[in-house]
Amino acid sequence: MLLWSIGQEMSVNLFFDIIMAMSLKKPAERSLRVNSYLIPAIALILIFVQLFFPFRGWAILASSFVGLCLFSYFWSRSLKKNLSLEREMRFGWMQVGDHIQERFSIENDSRMPALWVKIIDYSQMPGYTASKVTSVRSQWYSHWFTRGVCNRRGIYTLGPTSLETVDPLGMFTVRIDYPETVTMMVVPPILPLPRIEIAPGGRTGEGKSTSSGLERTIVAGGVREYMPGDSLRWLHWPTTARKNKPFVRVFDFSPASNWWILLDMDPNVQAGKGQESTEEYSVILAASLVNEGLKEDKSVGLITHGDDLIWHTPDVGDAHLWKILRSLAVVRPTGPSLPEMLDHLRTTLEQRTSLVVITPNINPGWLNDLGLLLRKGIVPTVLLLNPTGFGGIGKPDAIQDRLLRMGIKHYNINDTLQDLSQFQPEDFAVQPGDQMRKYTQSLKKQTVNWRTLG
């Protein structure tokens, strides 16, 4: 149900744009270009020589060269009008590690074969290209599939595509440009995390930043008859209809505050490269924690800062998860320092809020700002990524000692080959150097039939 709901949300946001674009599909731009003027120049010279110095040999040579030019021109012209390319793919949201598949089809309605056809792909997805060289005989149809791996989160463009072919003599080049493109979003993977205990922020409903409804933060434990003063919002309509008198819900007032997840995107504290970096592991942890919180019926929010501030207020539901994943797909380490972010939160978050800080910053200085939040009643949990495990420098001993003295619950993500091993199911074999592939579990996606780009 989770994946189906996410697929539905994506359909509204992505498929609608695709369908609208398809209705305004631009025609392919077809052009014919001369590669070499040598043969036409020789033919022209022979014609002038024949005019001033008539000789049967010159006439035969001139006729031959003119014939070659006409032969190549009509061959290329026929391919220009009758050669077509169709590019299709199964649209769907992708995660890092998922496979993307496309289907290409070339149809040649000309009486002339396309002996050499070059397909040029201008897609921007890292590590993926659909460029190919093939041939298509006359009155024939050919198709093939291309596959690639989504290696990095982000928003990428598939297309545009161009097709080039030449006549047998190489005098003319036919070029057909297809401007259709589609935007593909690759979101970070969601890992099955172990039991990471998030320090509860307080009583039910506290720590809210917006009045988004009491029912979102408390759990209904039963029903009872309506009493004067009860809110009409708490009416339980099925029981009311069955008993023919008003009944209201009874709520369980257990600690269930909102979760705020603060993702540190300060470029000065990141370590590692590519998938084996604190940047990518922080994003994966944030995405996985959001998913875990929503599965536990928590209202989860996200705060981070890349090029711009990303602020998702706590909410529930699969649509909210999809919004956060879209933001995490594009965030890059270009934000302010962690102390600046914490100082900003001191004036915006309410009391008894659960704050989860994900950071590779092992400088204990930012704990002073965290202590001010703690005094205000905001209860933090720290996920600390040790930069030494990612090729960085420094030891987290000092900051861990201070976190212990402050009574702040924290987890030390030691390195890519050790501490992430605790995030595996039991009896799962660890293969050093292959952690990211092992722990990135691709989700089955809801997809649609093949659709053309555009």
Care to describe what's here?
There is one protein chain. With 454 residues, the chain is of the alpha+beta class. It folds into three domains: 161 residues, Immunoglobulins (Immunoglobulin-like, Sandwich), CATH 2.60.40.10; 34 residues, no CATH class; 181 residues, von Willebrand factor, type A domain (Rossmann fold), CATH 3.40.50. The protein contains ten helices and 22 strands. Helix 8 links the parallel strand 19 and strand 20. The longest helix is centred in the N-terminal third of the chain and has 27 residues. The two termini are 30 Å apart. The N terminus is likely disordered.
Layout of helices and strands:
Elements: H1 2-23, E1 29-34, H2 38-52, H3 56-82, E2 83-89, E3 94-95, E4 99-108, E5 114-121, E6 132-136, E7 140-149, E8 154-158, E9 161-166, E10 172-178, E11 182-187, E12 219-225, H4 237-243, E13 247-252, E14 259-263, E15 272-273, E16 276-277, H5 278-295, E17 300-305, E18 309-315, H6 318-330, H7 338-345, E19 354-359, H8 367-376, E20 379-389, H9 397-406, E21 409-415, H10 435-439, E22 451-452
Parallel strand pairs: 3-11, 14-17, 14-19, 19-20, 20-21
Antiparallel strand pairs: 1-10, 2-4, 2-22, 4-7, 5-6, 5-9, 8-11, 9-10, 12-13, 15-16, 17-18
Helix pairs in contact: 1-6, 2-3, 5-6, 7-8
Strand content: 25-35%
**Largest β sheet strand count, sense and barrel closure:** 6 strands, mixed
Cα Rg:
32 Å
Number of helices: 10
Strand order of the largest sheet: 18-17-14-19-20-21
> Kindly, what is the distance between the CA atoms of the first and last residues, rounded to a whole number of angstroms?
30 Å
CATH topology of the largest domain: Rossmann fold
Number of separate domains: 3
Coarse shape: elongated
* Average pLDDT number: 79
| Structural class determined from secondary elements | alpha+beta
User: What would CATH call the architecture of the largest domain?
Assistant: 3-Layer(aba) Sandwich
CATH superfamily of the largest domain: von Willebrand factor, type A domain
* CATH level 1 class label of the largest domain: Alpha Beta
Question: Spans of 5+ residues with little confidence (pLDDT < 50)?
Answer: 1-23, 203-220, 252-256, 415-448
Helix content: 25-40%
Secondary structure: number of strands: 22
